[in-house]
Each structure stands twice: as structure tokens, then as C-alpha cells.
Amino acid sequence: MKPGERILGVEGGGTKTAWVLVEAVAGGVDPGSQGNILDRGELPPSNFRLTASERLRAILAELPKQIDRAGVFLAGCGTDEDRRSVKELCLEVWPNAKIVTGSDRDSGLAAALDHGDGIVVNAGSGSSVTGRRGDRIERAGGWGHILGDVGGGYFLSIQSLRLILREHDLHRGEMGFTTKILRALSLNNLDELVRWAQTADKMEIAMLAPVVLEAAAGGDARMTEIIEEGARVLCEYTEAVASRLHLLAPKVALMGGLFHRDSIYTHAFRRRLKKNLPDARVSIAERPPELGAAWLAAETHDRVTFQPKFSEKAIDDLAAALTEQRNPRSENLEKMSAREVAELFVEEEKFVQDALRGATSDLVRAVELVTESLRAGGRLFYVGAGSSGRIGVLDASEIPPTFGAPPDLVQGVIAGGMTALYRSVEGAVDEESAGALALDERQIKAGDVVIGITASGRTPFVLGALARAKSLGAKTILLTCNPAVAGGGDTGQPGSSTPATVADLLIVLTVGPEILTGSTRLKAGTATKAALNIISTGAMVGLGKVRGNLMIDLNAANTKLRDRAVRVVAELAQCDYDSARNLLEANAWNLRAVAENL
């Protein structure tokens, strides 16, 4: 490895694809030499066994292009044929780079043990135990979520879901944990839970593991039993690997999302392992596996100590956003009475009205753009992260029942996917390439309209999605509450997209600082929801989906909506309720068909 070489390390699993770009410095073959971290980030999951080749290629294509070496280590990449397949995909992206491929077990070993001996226990969405002594490698677990992965997040979650149903069948008593799971998934009953589980993928189920851990930490004895069972199996695997390698006092490094430094799972594992391997030295791995992947991409005798090179411009830009400033009217919020708090909120709503009034002309143009697109066969996409993403998904989900529109006509795209609707997904907002990939999955085309929603105007996921949409010929709109973006500027990262370059239309809702500093679910969220109401409803009106102010494409799918449909017909036909209902029943509850004949 030569000074100045750019080395890409990639570790892909069921939760995410983590990557780091490293530049080697002088003395790169010396174990004590250092390199600079140029960039790093996360992309969607890339388990080799669970991800289609085209999807893997698309993920790899979003990584830095100018590299000299790449180490790509993916979960499920276990055979020579697998490694060759991954290498072929990599060479399509980096034809002139030196490529090393393998399993995430390999990158985990390199990151946790350097070139020394020991055992790595990985418990994330899946699980595995891998040990090394000299040139010998021993493995246990890691067989995937269908046949293995005992002790991983999927195992903990699926065991807890089965317990819920078993207790219901045997005792008909609702466990307190049942309520926690239903609330976490925004579901209402066990039937809905079963339907969700039948279509959920490994990652979606594994994301319930924090709920299990929290319940166990709170004293739930049955969840504690599940935790103890997972830790017991991982300890058995660890002991078996240590025995086969003849390691009497092994270094045991813990990796993966379940092994936080002070988590209940970490304590359970340590306690059990000490019974049969009392001299084991257990610690949390300090380096992430993508650094191990970068290490392996260098020549085997190269050891590089990586130190990050930070840029603070993006942080400064965000801090300067109006939505992040303190509101002088709420500086004594904790001292206010309940009445004073309520009155302050009501008073602050005038800023929402002012913001919408000030953006009226741009909202009119947005309605026109969307109407033109939908009329010509295009689709509308809302793209956002956090509260902005949830608001977009909410508005999109209400269009089919309200206007009888197909579900793909208006779609919400949220950073982090479905899980982000009810739980924060760390890092989901930080990658432009993840936003671009999300739109690739929707097959964006010219004629579509993509509305990016970001209160700060700086969210990389949103800007990346808008940039990709614009490159494909779609119309793009940026909806923000930060007037500073109207002046252009950048996001503080080299090569990043900017609001000025990705949006055909900029809508600024200047609501001012929030009552609770930075909490853009408040005024910014209210103004955003109102703006989307205007855009989507205005477009539906333009498409002829209303008569007067009545819905004539209403999907009468339940009792409440059938009652509303009857009242619409009664109003249009100037007839009584029963006559209107008879008309609808005669037309199979097709409200439009009835309305067009009146």
C-alpha cells in the first residue's frame, strides 16, 4: 500500500451497509502508520443471500468512485463462488481497483482482533461466533434467520412474538408486553400483528429487539428469559469455538447492535460466559467492521491506524437554520403554567397562517405542476426524514380512500423505511445516496413530481432524492421552513447537492423558531401538513375528483365511509337517505357512477 492510496472498506449486513473511505499516508506498511478517514456513511442493507444482484450493484454504485482498493465484506458471502460473484459486481463499479471480498465475519475479525488471536461474538439482526488462533479459523452460528441466528435481534423478536400468541391462546390474558409491541408497530390487535408478521422481512422483525431489551431491563421476567436464552446459546457457541481452538483464556470481543456497553444483553452474556470460561477477557469491540474491511483491502502485512478528519461546515449550516434558533417567547417554558403553555401555542399558530399566506403563489404553482403531471399519467412522491417524512407518508396514505385513487399515484418515501414511522432510525437522514436509491426503487421517470420535505432545507437524504429525480427528468419541489436556503449555498460536504440545484420550485414556509427549540414537529410540522393538504387536494380537484365540495370518488370501504357516500348522493340528488343508499347499492357502491348520472 502506497501513501496517497484511497482505500474503501465496506461491511454489509441485514441492518445496513456501512462504509469508510481511507487515504493512506507515508509509512503505510508500518504497523504504527496512520491514515486519514476521508468520508464514511451508511446505505441500505446488503446481505448477499437476501439481496438481489441488481440491488447490490445499485448499492455499490452509490459508493465513492475514485478509489485504488476496496474491501467488500457482506453477510452471507461464505463460499468461493460467493466471493467471486461479489468481486465481479465490484469490478463493474471499480474496474481499475484492487478488490478483496469476503464475509462480514472476516471484517469483524480484522476490526476487533487486528491480527491477533481471539473470538468475535456478533449479535445484530443476526448472530455469529468466529474465532482465530494463528492461521486457523473456527465458526459457530450465523446460519441465517430461518435456520440459525440464535441470539440475534431476529431471534429475540420472534421468540417474544410467539410468546405473546402462546399466552393469548393458553390464558386469554393480555401481557403488558403485548401492549408495548402493538404500540411500537402502531397496530391495534393481535390479528393485525399476525398479518404484519406474515409480510415483514427479517430486518423489520429484528427491529423489535430494542422493545424486548427494554422490557427485560424493566423487570419483565418472560422477556428476561428470552434474553437469557439468547445469551446462553451464544455462550455455548463461544465455548465450543474456544475449545476447538484450544484457547483457555481467550480475548472475546463483542460486536453488533445488541451489545451496547451497558446493555442488559452484554451483562447476561458476560455473566454466563464466566461460569465455564472464567479466564476469558470480554470487551466491546472498539473499531467498527468497515474499518476492518479497509484493513483487509490493504496488503495483509499493512496495519493502518485511522483517525477521522472532520468538517464542521454542515453542522454550522444546520445550527444557523431559523428552525434551530431559540424562540424568545418561550425561553421560560419550564416555568409556565399549563394555561400559559396552551395560550402560547395558540398564539404561535398565527405564524403558521402568515407562512402559508406568504407562500401562496408558490403553492399555486405546486398545485399546477402536480395536476399537470398526474393528468399526463405521472405520479407524486413525497420524500422526507423524521417528522417531515411521516407527514408526507400520512398525506399520501389518505389519498386513496378520500379520492378513490390507486395507491401508487401518491407515495410517501421516508428515510429508514417503515420502521422510521414509529421509531427513530439512526443515520437514515445522513446519506444523499440512500435518498437516490430510494427513488431508484420506485422507478422514477420523467413526468413524475417529487416533493422533498425538510424543515431545515439541508437533509442529505431529501436532497439526494431530489437530485436523482431531477437527473431522470422528473419535476422537483423543495418544501422547507428555512428561508436561508432560498439564497443558495451548500450543505457543507464536497460534492453535495444544494437546494438551488435540485429544486425546480422552492416553497418556503417561514414559521420562525419553534416553542421547543429545534422541534420541527410543531409549527413547521403544522405548516407542512397544511401545505401538503393544499397541494394534494388542489390536484385532486383539478383532476375532477370532487363535485362542488363533495367527494365523488370516495372509496366506501367501511361503515363510516358508506354513510358519507350516502349523504353525498342524497345531497347531489336532493333525495332522502334511504333512496340514496338504494342508488349506491344498485351501483355496487360506486359513488362516481351514481354522481355522473345525476
Explained architecture:
This protein is α/β, with parallel strands linked by helices and 598 residues long. The chain has 4 domains: 6-113 and 286-308, Nucleotidyltransferase, domain 5, CATH 3.30.420.40; 141-284, 2-Layer Sandwich (Nucleotidyltransferase, domain 5), CATH 3.30.420; 320-542, Glucose-6-phosphate isomerase like protein, domain 1 (Rossmann fold, 3-Layer(aba) Sandwich), CATH 3.40.50.10490; 550-596, no CATH class. The chain contains 22 helices and 18 strands. The chain has a 6-stranded mixed beta sheet with strand order 5-4-1-2-3-11. It has a 5-stranded mixed beta sheet with strand order 8-7-6-9-10, sandwiched between helices. α15 (386-403) links the parallel β12 and β13. α1 (53-61) packs across α2 (80-93), α3 (104-113) packs across α11 (289-297) and α14 packs across α19 (523-542).
Give a summary of the structure in a few sentences.
The chain has 598 residues and is α/β, with parallel strands linked by helices. It folds into four domains: 6-113 and 286-308, ATPase, nucleotide binding domain (Nucleotidyltransferase, domain 5), CATH 3.30.420; 141-284, Nucleotidyltransferase, domain 5 (2-Layer Sandwich), CATH 3.30.420; 320-542, 3-Layer(aba) Sandwich (Rossmann fold), CATH 3.40.50; 550-596, no CATH class. It contains 22 helices and 18 strands.
